[in-house]
Amino acid sequence: MIPGNGMTWATSFKSIDAAINASGGNAEIWVKQGHYLMYKTMQPDVTNLILYGGFSGIETNKELRNPSLYPTIIDGQNKISCFSNTNRVIIDGFTFQNSIQSAINNTAEAEIINCIFTDNSSESGGAINCHDNSNTKVINSIFFKNNSLINGGAINLGNKANIDIINCSFTQNSAQQKGAAIFCSPGSTGRFINSIFWEDNAESDSEFYASGASIFYMYSNIQGIMPDRTNISTDPYFQSPNIGNLRLQPQSPCIDIGDSNAVNDIQKDLDGNSRILDGNNDQIFRVDIGAYEYKIIKKWTGDINHSGTVDLTDLILALKATTELSSRSIYLDADVDEDGKIGLAESIYIIKKVFMEMESNSK
Ligand SMILES: [Ca+2]
Ligand SMILES: [Ca+2]
Ligand SMILES: [Ca+2]
Ligand SMILES: [Ca+2]
Q1: Which ligand is in closest contact with the Cα of 344?
Q2: What is the 342 CA–ligand 4 centroid distance (Å)?
Q3: Residue 360 contacts by C-beta under 8 Å, 6 or more apart in sequence?
């Protein structure tokens, strides 16, 4: 591919690094779906960088991307760390895997949204190492099977480092010593809201270690804590935790018990579905705990023309509806995201459903 100017998909850069260097900072970089093997740690020397993943490679509007349909995978190949920032950065919509020395090393300020961290390792902080005095915010993200040789299987917080963890799910991370989900050094501050910490495994303090640190957890499900007014400690009923599917089953205690105020500026979950949905059918919309919002599947969900099946005809009708071409065979109770309209959310739902059926038929 001939390296371009990065202004269109046809003239895109050869690598994420090339795009970062050319941007000079204060820029958004859109990264197409794909499996990006890292040979060199990305160390952007620019400020206010925003990296978005999850594009199929035709979008002209970033709202149309979908990291769960079009994963952008950053792979450290068990050789290197993927990303290291010394300036403010936003990383949204990526999967980080197979890093050593942590997938992300944050020494400044990082906002990490809609990301999946899996099979990363380090001495401390397999997925994210938050170095001394850094600020980190993690939203709608999953930490699955990361590990550390010492402390902090998924996340390590250095001295005077701050972290906000909102609507994240941690499971099956491990640490040889303390804090398989998160290790908080003395003097650090951690706030965990609407998050699940379940079945992580360390020699002690499996979910978090926070001696000498300031820790606040609210509206969360944490294994090993005493339940209180807002927090619970009970099996979250992930769909298939052993393969990293941390969506909630219908009987999950995490449905509709989160703090909706914490997600005022978060419109979607890790699947790109609407937050907030009414997941227990009491007509009250309340956010769930964890990275995914549970959605009740109603009789006509996605079946735009009420034919009894969800198929490509429904997709065409839903797409027609997005361009405001009305059709007599569009039924509003096929609504997927409870916004009273047929459009993009329904189109994405139908594509996923049709793909999933094709996949299960080909097995
Ligand atoms: Ca409800
Ligand atoms: Ca809900
Ligand atoms: Ca149909
Ligand atoms: Ca809708």
Answers
A1: 4
A2: 4
A3: none
Residues with CB in 5 Å of ion ligand 2? 256, 277, 279, 288
Find residue 198's DSSP bridge partners. 171
Q: Quick check: 148 and 126 in contact, CB under 8 A?
A: yes
Ligand 3 centroid to residue 347 C-alpha, Å: 12
157 C-alpha vs ligand 2 centroid, how far in Å? 30
The verdict on residue 294 lying in a domain is no
Q: Across residues 332-346, what is the average pLDDT?
A: 89
Tell me, yes or no, whether 202 lies in a domain.
yes
pLDDT in tens, 243-281: 999 999 999 999 999 999 999 999 999 999 889 999 998
Flag whether 139 is in a domain.
yes
Spell out which residues have Cβ within 5 A of ligand 3, the ion.
303, 305, 307, 314
State pLDDT tens for residues 306-322.
999 999 999 999 999 98
pLDDT tens, residue by residue, 225-247: 999 999 999 999 999 999 999 99
- Taking alpha carbons only, the member of 249, 286, 294 closest to residue 269 is 294
Measured CA to CA, the distance from residue 105 to residue 349 in angstroms comes to 35
Domain span at residue 329 reads 312-361
Q: Count up the domains in the chain and report the number.
A: 2
d(CA 306, ligand 3 centre) in Å: 5
